[in-house]
Design brief:
This protein is mainly alpha-helical. It has a domain of about 160 residues: Helix Hairpins, CATH 1.10.287. Helices cover about 85% and strands about 0% of the residues. The chain is built from six helices and no strands. The longest helix is centred in the middle third of the chain and has 74 residues. The C terminus is likely disordered.
Length: about 290
């Protein structure tokens, strides 16, 4: 029993939530207004039915009144002619018609009161329906404006369903673009390093790769030598005495080295003289061209 009650409660909650999501207040207001118009029509129809009944009773009352008047005249004529029995019968019928007339008069008064009551109710209901119609239109206009403002705000903030789909599409396009750019960069690096083969330019052999590597190493060595030369040309600052002494000593050493290297260079550049015979003076040697 408890399980069935819980199932019923869950079903009702789900149905209520689904109906609340599907319900449109404007449609509900229009339906309520339609029902009120139908009710007002029924009240008016009731008023018309009561008025019709009252009118029929009124016609019957008029007929009975005429019949009562006619029977009284007939009774009077019968007495004048000496026919007391006919006069008695006419007066009896008149009494019966008068009794029916009294009943119809009571019924007529009741119907007339009911008609007045229904007329007042119809007028009140008409006023309520008119007021509800005005309020209904105001609520519908306010709801429509609020709905439009909500959709505009959702579109601006990007939380609406349509804008959410557009944002997701843009995000996917950006992700794919970034992935393609990363892939293109990786392939370029692999082609440059020789890990992948260029199908159009041909396969790079190992010798060409080694030559390229040697060229790169040679460029590195030249750059390293240049940097070392710059560092040697700009010695660090030391104390003034040591710096001056070092500079003077360096200049003297440089001068001595230059003086020693100069004769050597001149000897290397001068033509070699013929060897002198052992034990002969220089004057006894033959001159060139002798």
């Amino acid at each position: 029993m408890g399980v069935m009650k819980r199932v019923s409660l869950v079903f009702k909650a789900k149905a209520n939530k689904a109906l609340d999501r599907m319900e449109d207040p404007r449609e509900t207001l229009d339906y309520s207004y339609q029902r009120q118009l139908e009710m007002l029509t029924k009240v008016r129809r009731g008023v018309a039915d009561v008025a019709t009944s009252r009118k029929r009773v009124e016609l019957q009352m008029n007929q009975l009144q005429q019949s009562s008047t006619k029977l009284e005249d007939q009774a009077r004529k019968a007495l004048s002619m000496g026919r007391e029995d006919l006069a008695r019968e006419a007066l009896g019928r008149k009494s019966s018609a008068q009794s029916q007339l009294n009943d119809l008069q009571a019924q007529y008064a009741q119907l007339q009161a009911e008609e007045e009551k229904l007329t007042v109710a119809s007028q009140r209901l008409q006023a309520k329906v008119d007021a509800f119609r005005t309020r209904k239109e105001t609520i519908k206009a306010t709801y429509t404006a609020a709905e439009a403002q909500t959709r505009i705000n959702e579109a601006f903030s990007g939380i609406s369903e349509e804008m959410g789909d557009v944002g997701m599409a843009i995000q996917r396009a950006e992700d794919k673009t970034a992935q393609m750019q990363a892939r293109a960069g990786a392939i370029d690096e692999l082609l440059a390093s020789g890990a992948l083969d260029d199908a159009i330019g041909g396969r790079r052999d190992d010798i060409q790769a080694e030559l390229d590597q040697m060229s790169a190493n040679s460029d590195v060595e030249l750059e390293l030598r240049r940097l070392r030369g710059e560092n040697e040309n700009t010695p660090p600052k030391e104390l003034e005495g040591g710096q001056n002494g070092g500079q003077n000593g360096g200049q003297a050493a440089g001068s001595a080295q230059n003086s020693q290297s100069a004769p050597t260079q001149r000897q290397a550049q001068a033509p070699s003289a013929p060897a002198q015979p052992a034990g002969l003076p220089v004057s006894d040697l033959p001159e060139d061209g002798a």
